[in-house]
Amino acid sequence: MEERKSGELLTIKEQQQVMLDIMKAFHEFSLKNNISYILIYGTLLGAVRHKGFIPWDNDMDVGVPRHEYDRLVSLLNSGEKVGEHYYHLHYTNDSNYHYQIIRICDDRTTVQPPYIRNQPKRMGVWLDIFPIDGVPEKTLAGRFHRARLYINKKIQIADIYAVRGKKDIANRIGNIICHIFPNATKRNYKIDKILRQTPYERSEYVGNMEDRDERILKMSKSFMEDRTLLKFEDTEFFGPQDWDGCLKIAYGDYMQLPPEDKRMSHPTGCKWL
User: Fold this and answer.
1) Domain boundaries, the chain
2) CA proximity to 250, closest of 46, 96, 98
3) What is the pTM of this model?
4) Per-residue pLDDT tens digits of the chain, which is 273 residues long
5) Cα–Cα distance between 204 and 222 in angstroms, integer?
6) Residue ranges in the chain assigned as alpha helix (H)
7) Measured between alpha carbons, how far is 44 from 242 in angstroms, rounded to an integer?
8) Is residue 136 within 8 Å of 199, Cβ to Cβ?
9) Among 147, 129, 161, residue whose Cα is nearest residue 237
10) How distant is the alpha carbon of residue 175 from its chain centre?
11) Is the dihedral of CA 114, 115, 117, 121 positive or negative?
């Protein structure tokens, strides 16, 4: 990578290189600590369709089964580090971080996404690690479970994305909701408690239930447990052995490129420190 200057914006390519380095460190960390993961979402799609990053993407996602995910949180909160320049964000270690996911950040960068209401104390270019939970069955109890999760997630999303100063209706409603339900940390614990009520081990289908649209990752448990190494840029990371089946559930005809006006990156405002 070329010599960087403090305060200079990172290009997409530079962001991808930082994320790739984080992912390499996490891969080694996961092998050392017996934590199984797979590439998910656009990261898996990039591995299959582009043998690396989707060219316009500046995001990287992996999924970890809940029981191993909880152990990962404990390891990181107890002082274990993924690598020399990396730290983690989780709602248990930063009260301004309002997601269930673990975020591994690079301490040589700073990110201030304009779409986030309350910024964490610090946040750098990141790798997102999602918990994979059991998907409730379509029984009365399962529907009640989904309804509770849906309501709490909607409140959480309003808290994260209702940016002060914006005048549109969604933000105004979000700000009102945040005043009515102000305790974000308590809400995060509540959402995690709801997520654990459908155990991964006893579920036929699993997925990223904390997401706004968990249907995209509702999948057979075999996708998580039958893994294979997939080429990604200059290295290899774990993905589902049946990556074709997984991607068809998520994207349908996944080899078809989206139209150019849909090839979007996340506006993160990444800068070198």
Assistant:
1) 12-133+203-272
2) 46
3) 0.92
4) 556 778 899 999 999 999 999 999 999 999 999 999 999 999 999 999 999 999 999 999 999 999 999 999 999 999 999 999 999 999 999 988 888 899 999 999 999 888 787 778 899 999 999 999 999 888 999 889 888 888 888 888 877 876 655 666 766 777 787 778 778 888 899 999 999 999 999 998 999 887 655 444 678 999 999 999 999 999 999 999 999 999 998 899 999 999 999 898 887 889 999
5) 10
6) 12-33, 41-49, 66-77, 140-161, 169-180, 184-195, 221-225, 243-251
7) 11
8) no
9) 129
10) 24
11) negative
Q: What is the CA radius of gyration of the chain?
A: 18
Written as six digits, the tokens of 85 are 């320049």
CA-based nearest residue to 195, from 249, 250, 150: 150
Residue 49 token pair = 């369709």
Tell me the one-letter amino acid at 55.
P
* Rounded CA separation 270/125 (Å): 7
From CA 160, how far away is CA 154, in angstroms rounded? Answer: 10
- The structure tokens listed for 33 are 């600590």
Fold classification of 12-133+203-272 is Beta Polymerase; domain 2 (3.30.460)
How many CB atoms are located within 10 Å of the residue 109 CB? 21
